[in-house]
Amino acid sequence: MGRRRFLDVILGGGITALLVGIVYPVFRFIIPPEQPEADASRVVAAKTSELPPNSSKIFKFGKDPAILVHTKSGDYRAFAAICTHLDCTVQYRDDLEHIWCACHNGHYDLNGNNISGPPPSPLAQYEVTVRGEDIIVSKA
Amino acid sequence: MTDPKRPSTVMSWLDERLGLSSVKELAMHKRVPMHKHSIWYYLGGMTLFCFIVQVITGIFLLLYYRPSAEAAFESVQFIMTDVKFGWLMRSIHSWSANLMVFFAFVHMFSVFFMRAYRKPRELTWVSGAVLLMLSLGFGFSGYLLPWNQLAYFATKVGTDILGEIPLIGHWLLTVARGGEDVTGATLTRFFGVHVAVLPMITTVFLLVHLVLVQKHGMSKPIGKEYENTPQMPFFPNFAVRDLVGWTLALGILVTLSSLFPWELGVKADPLAPAPAGIRPEWFFVFMFQTLKYIPGQVLFINGELLGIAGFTLGGVALILVPFLDRRAQREERNAVVSAIGWTVLLYMVVFTILGYM
Amino acid sequence: MNIPYHRSVLLIVVPLVVLCLPAISDAESSCISCHTDLPVDELSQPAQNFTADLHNLAGFGCQDCHGGDPTVGMDDYELAHSASKGFIGVPDEQEIPGLCASCHADVEFMKQYDPKLQVDQLLEYRSSHHGKLLAEGDDKVATCVSCHGVHGIRPIDDTRSSVYKTNIARTCAGCHSDEDYMAEYDIPTKQFAQYKESIHGRKLMDEGDLAAPTCNNCHGSHGATPPGLTSVSNACGSCHANNLEYFNQSPHNDAFAMMEIGKCETCHGHHDVEQPTREEFGIGEDSKCLDCHSEGDAGYTAAKVMAEGYDSLETTLDQARELLERAERGGVDVSLGKFDLHSADDALIKARTAVHYFDTTKYNEVVQAGLIDAQKVIEQGHEAVDDLEMRRIGLAFTIPVILLVALALYLRVRQIERTKPYA
After folding, report:
1. Does C124 lie in the same domain as C66?
2. What DSSP letter does each residue of B170-233 carry, written as one string?
3. I want to staple B33 with a disulfide (CB 3.0 to 4.6 A). Which of B229, B297, C297, C359 is the partner?
4. C311 Cβ partners below 8 Å, 6+ apart?
5. C108 and C24 belong to one structural domain
6. In angstroms, rounded to a whole number, what is the distance separating the alpha carbons of residues B264 and B268?
7. Separation of first and last alpha carbons in chain A
């Protein structure tokens, strides 16, 4: 009878452990993650307060960097921040008032057109909408 | 288990209302013959285990999955990377799906070679054959849902075949795809089929299948040597053994999913050129490969059409096996039937291997 | 200006003809109708080709260049081709630039067609090596028609034009790669063969990348000339701006000037310029640095330091990438790490340009910044891979439990069977 009792304990313990091993992941799975699912086609790039005219911000859009420019004239424009030449991250030059790539001195105007230096093609442009404090960038 | 001498009042109360004793009778009376081929009796249970895992993990995946061309890939990615144990849930779903189809095929062949479809089990076979086709449907529709490049093109090629059918082909194609091409509309359709239509039909056939199996018990192979085999009670002896198998299967699933998590690939881009080496899921590869070998024209008939007609006939023949094998109905073994079975198995194995070379 | 008499006449006559006869050119030209069917190719083809010529489409006729009178009809050959009608026949090689310029150098006239058109081509041409040789009486050199064609001239933005960007090199090569034709000039003929295989040639002619330069981007077009040492570097610098700027600040700038060697082409070549490789700098076998420097001097040490810096940055970045990929294959989210890796990757590209400082201090600033970024990514990668390890640990705990339960279940059913055999 001792052996049988021992086996029952092992069996009961094992099954309990197994059930815990199944229920715990399931329990964790059904709790939604803290950051909600990233929408790949739309992102709040910045708050209006953090971006005065003639300044810019690099933000993460999907997997890649993008650049949001608040122009001197007051428009918001957003582009892919990846230089079309060799994929460096571009930046906004407030002295030149246009977008510039430090790697090989490529220049883009505020429509994303490559205007000088090695870049062979324009930067992809995104749509910008301002809703309250939020500057929302979306893929057209 | 309750003491038979002192039946619990709850049980008897329920029994009076639900007729539990007849259910118990159904479970208890079944016997499993013990002989050198008994191992094959486990395979139906294995398939069932995978199916149960599919239902459970599938429902959990539905918490986060979003069926649209814009969001499907991203939501699966979200499940894989952000949701706790999401990678495990999805990997188990994918691995279990493949194991289910595999076990279903092995189950079918073992039943075939043991002639277990003999009277009175003809309808058990028919329901089983339908279940096998339903699980292929699950595989085909589920493959597209992550909306990745490989699945997209495999679905494109797979549904293209529908368009070859004369007269109604184009209509079928547009119905299957929800339009001329594989688009977000196709994804929505496949999703509906995968999580609503197929589960509903499968539930009905599965219930019929299981009740029939319980009712008729396990079939003995044909032959004198099997007449006096020992009979193991299904409950609890065989059922616990089944459970041992299921526990081990769970271990295999968890191991495969942890060490070889199912990859997501890259998001489908309808404008991108088809990637090299697109292939359907492995259980369709033998058909895919056959269609490749059939010449464009065979005696004035479109070759592909001939292939499709062949597979359709094959499917019908599969369902009708119990009615075609007249000798088995008289409890006689037929070498021709075995030869056909081995040929089909060999053909499927060889063509699957060819497809991967 | 010192223009020969016959050319000065043309300069007056041709515009007169052009200005006086615009109405006629609209009418059916007897030149075209007669010449099209002439049995001699030399006489019929110009007429046939001219229909597609942009000048024809703009309303000009044969007489606007050749003189003569297209209105007299097909009967009077003599009158139509008479000198009194200003007929000049086939213009002499020497006359061609002036003939074209009689319109193309006329600011007022050209404005009517396209206000932004250049009108200084003749001036440029005269300054070119071609123009100078022509003035010396050499009729073999290129004139307007050698490049632009004649009787079938297309706008330069027409992809079929002989001077469309992707076609220019082949057009120049028509003469410059012809060894027999170029025999009397003391210049090489393999430029096109080299250019075609160069990074610029492949980009432009194979990949259609219009940003890549062709002959005229360095040599000029109408003013084509063998460029001087400075102008070559400036031509390179117009695209490779940072490289030139850094070079100008570098110790090489004065040294190269003193040795009278080119800033760019000394290391990179010109017609045969190739995509630079890592092996071209440093102290390896293929290093260009070692063409001048040798072990022991400051340049050698600098080359060694820069090459090592580059390699360590590249290795670190690869390490970071490998870690992230490993984690991603396992289903761990590494998008933030990849985002950071992207900016770290910039450092490697910047380092390639920063080589042209030829100054280890400035160079190392770039490399160090990259190394710091890459280290951060590596930390993220380790965290992600640790996540992956956690799964295996979890698995290692789960499997024994599963096996234990399976075993216990089996033993249990055997126990039942021992106490209550079924057969």
Report:
1. yes
2. HHHHHHHHTSSS-SHHHHHHHHHIIIIIHHHHHHHHHHHHHHHHHHH-PPPPSSGGGTT--EEE
3. B229
4. C278
5. yes
6. 11
7. 75
Q: Round to whole Å and give the CA distance between B194 and C177.
A: 67
Beta strands in A2-140 (DSSP E): 42-47, 55-61, 64-70, 76-80, 91-93, 98-101, 106-108, 114-116, 125-131, 134-138
Instruction: Identify residue C296 by its one-letter amino acid code.
Output: G
Residue C421 lies in a domain: no
Among C120, C142, C164, residue at a domain's last position: C142
Strands B31-33 and B231-233: antiparallel
Q: Where are the alpha helices (DSSP H) in C183-271?
A: 191-197, 199-201, 215-219, 229-237, 241-249, 251-259, 265-268
Tell me which residue of B110, B143, B122, B131 sits closest to B262, measured CA to CA. Answer: B143
- Count of domains for chain C: 4
Question: Which H or E run contains B302?
Answer: strand B301-302
Low-confidence residues in chain A, pLDDT < 50: none
Residue C415 confidence (pLDDT):
87
Let me know if B207 is exposed, middle or buried by CB neighbors in 10 A (0-12, 13-18, 19+). exposed
A115 touches chain C (CB under 8 A): no
Domains of chain B and CATH, by start: 27-268 (1.20.810.10)
Name residues whose C-beta falls within 8 Å of residue C101's C-beta, 6 or more positions apart in sequence.
C121, C122
In whole angstroms, give the CA distance from residue B163 to residue B161.
5
In a domain, C291, yes or no: no
Is the domain spanning A42-138 CATH 2.30.110.10? The answer is no
Q: Which domain holds residue C133?
A: 1-142
Same domain, C242 and C363: no
- 10 Å Cβ neighbour count for B336? 9
Q: Do A31 and B84 touch (CB under 8 A)?
A: yes
**Binning pLDDT at 50, 70 and 90, where does residue C396 land?**
very high
Specify whether C111 is located in the same domain as C6.
yes
**C194 and C100 housed in the same domain:** no
Question: B90: nearest CA in chain A?
Answer: A29
Residue C401 resides in a domain: no
pLDDT tens figures, C291-314: 889 888 888 999 999 999 999 999
Are C221 and C130 in the same domain?
A: no
User: Could you give the 3-state DSSP secondary structure of residue A64?
Assistant: strand
For C38: left if phi > 0, alpha if psi spans -120 to 50, otherwise beta; the answer is beta
Q: Are residues C163 and C127 in the same domain?
A: no
In 10 A of CB C149, how many CB atoms? Answer: 16
Nearest to A86 by CA among C261, C242, B187, C299: C242
Per-residue confidence (pLDDT) for residue C411, from 0 to 100:
92
CATH number for the domain harbouring residue C305? 1.20.140.10
Cross-chain Cβ contact B244/C417 below 8 Å: no
Percent of chain A with pLDDT over 70: 94
Whether residues C130 and C1 share a domain: the answer is yes
Q: Compute the distance between CA of residue C238 and CA of residue C259 in angstroms, rounded to an integer.
A: 23
Of all residues in chain C, the one with the smallest CA distance to B256 is: C395
- Among C121, C142, C163, the domain-final residue is C142
Task: Give the up-direction half-sphere exposure of residue B15: CA atoms within 13 A in the CB hemisphere.
Answer: 11
Structure tokens at B113: 């070679």
Q: Answer yes or no: is C303 within a domain.
A: yes
CA distance C128 to B352: 71
Q: Which residue of A39, A105, A108 to mutate against C (max C Cβ within 10 Å)?
A: A105
Would the CB atoms of B85 and A41 count as touching at under 8 Å? no
| Tokens 């034709």 -> residue | C181
C408 to chain A nearest CA, in Å? Answer: 6
